[in-house]
Design brief:
heterodimer, A: 374 residues, alpha+beta, Proliferating Cell Nuclear Antigen, DNA Polymerase III, Chain A, domain 2, 3 domains, 9-stranded antiparallel sheet, 5-stranded antiparallel sheet, 10 helices, 24% helix, globular, B: 412 residues, 10-stranded antiparallel sheet, 4-stranded antiparallel sheet, 15% helix, elongated, DNA repair protein rad9 (chain B), Rad9 (chain B), DNA damage (chain B)
Chain lengths: 374, 412
């Protein structure tokens, strides 16, 4: 079993890992010839199933496995991976490989960085200009100032060799578990009925700020009602405040909080409801005509102020929703699919890299959020 | 470190020294604050009846002092309670019933805060570190190290220092070995490989592992960085003490730490090789690779600035090197008094520790006289004359537990 790759987009990888880490401690990572899949299935709360094309984060990707389809399944602790990646923020280069040390499987991250120049002894300075204009080299830094010029070539080879060694190498060993194919056989992406409403979400930063504010207000009013503050720390995700999220097929999104003492809501209008691709819908054109979203289109209006007709609504747990929205740092386009009173599915499409491979598929994170009863 | 010790010396050579020793007595920290540079005003007159002569020494609880000063640095920035000046005085007059260390903080708007701390007047012990015996070491900008200590995982426990092929390798690791799902809870193991050219000075035996605590190292580097001072590290061999030191702005800081580590690589090498950039500081980018492999007897390290003590003579130094080779010879010649049968070289590591024989050669010496705490040196006087006595450093009494590196020896 072999896996090795250069990391080409360290910032994307770090942010991606950070967003996943908010939802769970451990990710199931599936590597194969085509793509990399990260899946987080926490005990409670939102599941994430993500597919990254290889060139989103990797370069010079090598994989070799005895399992069918050249697949490697791993369990990776996300916080540790995130920490390891963070030390590569200013790296010149970083690569990752699967290895073993004392029989413990590891993902070893090797990071090469330039060090601060400040530590250099300044004594090299006098030699700096000695060979400038010699034409034979692009030397920038001082080497042996007294070196006879006949030795120059030899020395410069040594010099540049030494200069490369000068880079600092940081190795971060991430403990992991290798999963047998049988262990992951039973894991399937959740299935859901066709959504009633699909809509492009507004800027997630904005949405997150407002959502977090609502959640805070809900918590504050609850504690005002006489519950102990200490109790909240131990509350499970199911016990937290519920936010009501609704959308219609006329570009409206509404975030609302209802407690005993208040009703607040925010309304976005003029959002986009993307057209469904008939090829993606079962039964093609007929299926599209009978699609729930087509029926929802006939209801409601673009002001979102006239009654509850045409709205699909779900209730999400405030803090869990906040964690989901942390994916906003990746800056992708987000489509939310509402199954009324049932579930919310978010598709986060990562911005494509500089080279778009035609037909190479897209990197997409899929969040499955189930709705709570009112 | 629960107890802080204070010593005050007269104004001419005046300094306030604050020291602390941890409970297991494996780490010792000393901060000497210079009377003229560090303090606005320093006034000390020895009480006539004091038995300790012209010094004042006392001991107080670290927690008590910390609660007075902790977090004050943030108050300096235009806050209501900003401290404008801090006066510390000691009340030890015979006519007063209680001894107190009094901290007076003069704040804005004429507010004054008093803290009266109880101290215990005791003689202070100082750990002594023989720098002439610690002939290996390095010096590096604290900024460079500060940048890298961030990479060590928060839960790792130990730090391994190693010199290898022109590189200095710092590895943080944890000895706990977990299996199954627990394995995923293991902290990150981080190795940082720095070129010796990053160091202002570097001299360390190739392939020798010296192990200290990551937490100590992080704390030291973080503090050194706040003083913007380069850090010096001095050591000799694993299981011998190591010292970090740096000074700036009238504060001299020294940390003496006990080390563990793998002696085998160091002791079985018949001709120890050194990774060094000494004597080549003018061409740091070229020479280190060539200097690797030269033994120190061919290229004696130049006297380092800042060491006021006399260095060992050339012949002494050579013999100090020679003793590195000794263990392989003595290990086959075990203690004749031993009840255990000699059983190859596996045996010595199972020997009970022989405390008596080590007497008088511990590097951590204690000195209650403390006439000149910063100048006194505990000298391994026997180094040149009786090299065999230092030949079994891996069996010294200060080692708390068996080293992991020796574990595999059990069944092989």
């Amino acid at each position: 079993m072999r896996f090795r790759a250069d990391i080409r987009n360290i910032h994307t990888f770090t942010k991606f890992t950070a967003s996943l880490a908010t939802l769970g401690h451990i990710a199931w990572v599936r590597l194969d010839n085509k793509d990399v899949r990260f899946t987080v299935i926490p005990d409670t709360g939102t599941q994430v199933w993500s597919v990254l094309t290889l060139d989103t984060i990797f370069d010079n990707y090598t994989i070799q496995s005895a399992a069918p389809n050249n697949t490697i399944n791993l369990e990776v602790p996300l916080a540790v991976l995130q920490r390891a990646l963070r030390s590569a923020q200013n790296a010149n280069a970083a690569s990752i490989r699967l290895t073993k040390k004392d029989n413990i499987p590891l993902l070893s991250l090797t990071i090469t960085t330039e060090t601060l120049r400040s530590s250099q002894p300044t004594a090299t300075a006098p030699g700096q200009d000695h060979f400038a204009g010699n034409g034979t080299s692009s030397s920038i830094n001082g080497f042996h100032p007294d070196g006879p010029s006949t030795d120059f070539r030899e020395e410069s080879v040594e010099f540049f060799g030494a200069r490369q060694d000068r880079e600092t190498v940081v190795t971060q060993d991430i403990p992991i578990r290798v999963l047998a194919a049988a262990a992951v056989e039973g894991l399937h992406e959740p299935r859901c009925r066709a959504p009633d409403v699909h809509i492009v979400l507004p800027n997630l930063v904005q949405l997150k700020t407002i959502s977090d504010r609502f959640t805070k207000l809900a918590l504050a009013t609850k504690s005002g009602a006489g519950r102990s503050i200490g109790g909240f720390a131990t509350q499970s995700a199911t016990a937290g405040p519920k936010l009501e999220l609704s959308a219609n097929m006329h570009g409206c999104l509404r975030l609302a909080l209802h407690t005993d003492s208040m009703h607040i809501s925010s309304l976005w209008t003029g959002l986009e409801n993307p057209e469904l691709d008939p090829e993606q819908v079962s039964d093609g054109e007929d299926g599209l005509a009978n699609h729930p979203s087509t029926r929802m289109k006939a209801l409601g209006d673009s002001t979102g102020q006239h009654g509850e007709e045409g709205w699909a609504t779900v209730r999400v747990e405030g803090r869990d929703w906040g964690r989901v929205l942390s994916v906003g740092r990746l800056g992708g386009r987000v489509i939310a699919c509402f199954c009324n009173q049932h579930a919310l599915i978010l598709y986060v499409f990562l911005p494509a890299g500089e080279e778009v491979v035609v037909g190479g598929g897209e990197s997409v994170l899929t969040y499955y959020i189930s709705s709570y009863a009112a | 470190m629960t107890v802080l010790s204070f010593s005050l010396t007269p104004e001419a050579t005046g300094r306030l020294t604050i020291t602390a020793l941890n409970l297991s007595k494996t780490a010792y920290a000393a901060f000497a604050l210079d009377a003229r540079t560090f303090f606005i005003d320093y006034d000390f007159s020895a009480s006539s009846g004091a038995k300790s002569g012209d010094r004042f020494t006392c001991q107080l609880l670290n927690k008590a002092l910390q609660s007075v000063f902790k977090g004050r640095s943030n108050e300096g920035r235009g806050r209501e309670s900003a401290v404008e000046r801090c006066d510390v005085s000691i009340q030890d007059q015979p006519d007063k019933t209680e001894c107190r260390l009094i901290v007076k903080m003069l704040c804005k708007h004429g507010m004054t805060k008093f803290y009266r701390l109880t101290y215990e007047s005791v003689e202070v012990m100082h750990a002594l570190f023989d720098r002439t015996a610690a002939n290996q070491g390095w010096r590096i900008s604290s900024r460079v190290l500060r940048e890298y200590i961030e990479f060590f995982g928060p839960k790792t426990e130990q730090l391994d220092l190693l010199a290898q092929e022109g590189k200095a390798v710092f590895t943080s690791f944890t000895e706990k070995v977990a299996t199954g799902t627990e394995a995923l809870k293991q902290p990150l193991e981080t190795a940082i490989s720095l070129h010796t050219g990053e160091f202002e000075d570097f001299h360390m035996q190739q392939d020798m592992h010296i192990v200290i605590s990551v937490k100590d190292f992080k704390a030291i580097v973080t503090h050194a960085e706040t003083l913007r001072a380069p850090i010096s590290c001095h050591f000799s061999l694993p299981t011998r003490p190591l010292q970090f030191s740096y000074h700036n702005l009238g504060m001299h800081s020294e940390f003496t730490l006990m080390t563990t580590g793998d002696m085998r690589a160091a002791s079985t090498t018949p001709n120890p090789q050194f990774v060094s950039n000494r004597g080549s500081s003018r061409q740091p980018s070229v020479i280190p690779a060539q200097a690797t492999g030269r033994s120190a007897s061919e290229m004696p390290p130049p006297p380092r600035p800042g060491i006021s003590k006399p260095l060992l003579s050339q012949s002494q130094r050579t013999s100090a090197k020679a003793q590195v080779r000794q263990p392989s010879m003595t290990e086959s010649d075990p203690d004749p008094e031993s009840l255990f049968m000699p059983d190859g070289d596996e045996d010595p590591r199972w020997e009970p520790l022989n405390y008596e024989q080590d007497e008088g050669e511990e590097m951590l010496g204690w000195d209650a006289n403390n006439e000149h705490p910063s100048q006194q040196t505990f000298r391994d006087s026997g180094t040149a004359a009786r090299p065999p006595r230092r030949a079994e450093p891996s069996q010294e009494g200060l080692e708390p537990t068996q080293r992991l590196s020796q574990m595999h020896g059990m069944f092989d």
